[in-house]
Design a protein that fits this description.
By secondary structure, this protein is α/β, with parallel strands linked by helices. It folds into two domains: 184 residues, Rossmann fold (3-Layer(aba) Sandwich), CATH 3.40.50; 109 residues, Helicase, Ruva Protein, domain 3 (Orthogonal Bundle), CATH 1.10.8. 43% of the residues lie in helices and 15% in strands. It is built from 15 helices and eleven strands. The strands form four sheets. A five-stranded parallel beta sheet has the order 2-5-8-1-9. A two-stranded antiparallel ribbon has the order 3-4. Strand 3 and strand 4 form a beta hairpin. The protein is globular and about 70 Å long. About 2% of the residues have low confidence. This is MoxR family ATPase. It comes from Halalkalicoccus tibetensis. One of its GO terms (molecular function) is ATP binding. InterPro entries: AAA+_ATPase, ATPase_AAA-3, CbbQ/NirQ/NorQ/GpvN, ChlI/MoxR_AAA_lid, P-loop_NTPase.
Length: 331
């Protein structure tokens, strides 16, 4: 199963045997997995952030490791260290939990900045350096971090450099009444329902092949200019002191191609870009003091940017037959 659309549908169907009402979260996790990105999940306690990440890893066939981020956690607890063995009289490398396909950094903002930074090299370079030795991480490699937005005591805000390394920030909301009722019924029938009920539906080698298909998705020059216009608008906005970085532009490019692929399209449309604007941009904006005093949020600015930047009109990809008619780009 190397088709991105089939890969996404298989993961979505399997995760939904346990998780209810978070289809968009699974879609965007799949997009990040297909593009080598990392995801920050934010939401109040008890809404299945950690569960969603665990179920996603199981269905995707990825080896995963959960790191409970706490103030006393050390960088070596994540990356690993050399341990002395009395029996041999030598030091041997003991690899940390970062050496896996999917790392779940639970409550990442509870660890100190020094420990948070231990993930920076892994997230960007797909490698870690332990006492001078540089070691490659498995492929695919993905970090999913969670954080609670309402509890501030005993937490450390993520540095801007680390926030920028997350391809997307996803807000996990409360379920509606219908989904919550279904949740009650499902767990009433199967009280022990959990990650053990999830089966692997995708092979890691197929994931790598699906990634190659995403690379081949067509992106018109007008779409690229639209991406640049959106990013530039965040930099010029009156309520920001720093807008999105070039890394955000690349995130738009890669994720919009993946979204097109899982929707069985061979080309990107403006709706792909618009749908991903908030998760890509919201955590990258540094608001002005006046904006914060006025209770303006990053989400407000992103909505303003998307509404003010005109998307491209109808275009036909170069590799699209003329007889097929115009691509349905929506303004």
């Amino acid at each position: 199963m190397t088709n991105p659309a089939e890969t996404y549908e298989a993961i979505q169907d399997e995760v939904q045997t346990v998780l209810i009402g978070n289809e968009e979260i699974v879609e965007r996790l799949t997009i990040s997995l297909l593009t080598g990105g990392h995801v920050l999940l934010e939401g109040v306690p008890g809404i299945a952030k950690t569960t969603a990440a665990t179920l996603f890893a199981r269905a995707s066939g990825l080896d995963d490791a959960r790191i409970q981020m706490t103030p006393d956690l050390l960088p070596a607890d994540i990356t690993g260290t050399h341990v002395y063995h009395e029996s041999t009289g030598e030091f041997a490398l003991q690899r940390g939990p970062v050496f896996t396909n999917l790392v779940l950094a639970d409550e990442i903002n509870r660890s100190t900045p020094k420990t948070q930074s231990a993930l920076l090299e892994a997230m960007q370079e797909r490698q870690v350096t332990i006492e001078g030795d540089t070691l490659s991480l498995p492929s695919p490699f993905m970090v999913i971090a969670t954080q609670n937005p309402i509890e501030m005591e005993g937490t450390f805000e993520l540095p801007e450099a680390q926030r920028d390394r997350f391809q997307m920030k996803l807000q996990v909301g409360l379920p509606n009444r219908e989904n919550e009722r279904e949740l009650l019924d499902r767990f009433n029938e199967t009280p022990d329902l959990g990650a053990d009920a999830i089966e692997q539906v995708v092979d890691p080698s197929d994931l790598l092949a699906a990634r190659e298909e995403v690379v081949d998705i067509y992106v018109d020059d007008d779409i690229k200019n639209y991406i640049l216009d959106l990013v530039a608008a965040t930099r010029d906005h009156s309520d920001t002191t720093n807008g999105a970085s070039p890394r955000a532009s690349l995130a738009f490019l890669h994720t919009s191609k993946a979204r097109a692929a899982i929707q069985s399209r061979e080309y990107v449309i403006p709706d792909d870009v618009k749908a991903l604007a908030k998760p890509i941009l919201v955590h990258r904006l540094l608001l002005s003091a006046e904006a914060e005093l006025s209770d303006i949020t990053g989400a407000d600015i992103v909505e303003d940017v998307v509404s003010s930047v005109e998307p491209p009109g109808s275009l036909v990809p170069e590799d699209e037959p003329a007889s097929s008619g115009p691509v349905p780009y929506n303004k």
